[in-house]
Amino acid sequence: MTRLNANDAFAEVEDDRAGQHALTFGWLTGEILRRATGLRPHELLAEYLSTPLAADAWIGLPARVESRVATVHPAPEVADPEALAGEGWPGVLTPPGIRFSTGFLVNGSPGRPLLSDLSFGHDGANGSLGFADAGAAIGFGYLNNQLANPVDERANRLTAALQHSLRA
């Protein structure tokens, strides 16, 4: 995959921004890790995290634990097809008000606020969200197995509850 990426021209964009698919980032960082350490990402995870901490964490799920993994269910049918378009920012790679730092959102986005300007993380498909906040010295992760419709407020409500509990 990294050879394919190396031979692929960057997507042409009308100004100084470069466009690459979000999934390319993992392949590229994995190759950097492999070249620096001689180990592939799943081997690094096992050697430095999973095995020493006896943690159930893998990159690539072993067949022996498949029965423990939740099934992902499809999203309910969207009644309003225009909802799929969302508000969006046509023709813009990074919408106004969103800041990135080495692949992470800094304090979220207008539709996915985090705790503070010291928060960094990323949301993902299915309404998932993971972030840390240096000021609050806390990490947060939310995953689910029910695919979400385009406007999914579950992670936002959980983040707001976390923020409320930290203020209490």
UniProtKB/TrEMBL annotation:
Transmembrane segments: none annotated. InterPro entries: Beta-lactam/transpept-like, Beta-lactamase/esterase. SUPFAM superfamilies: beta-lactamase/transpeptidase-like. PANTHER family: BETA-LACTAMASE-RELATED, BETA-LACTAMASE-RELATED DOMAIN-CONTAINING PROTEIN. This is Esterase. It comes from Streptomyces endocoffeicus.
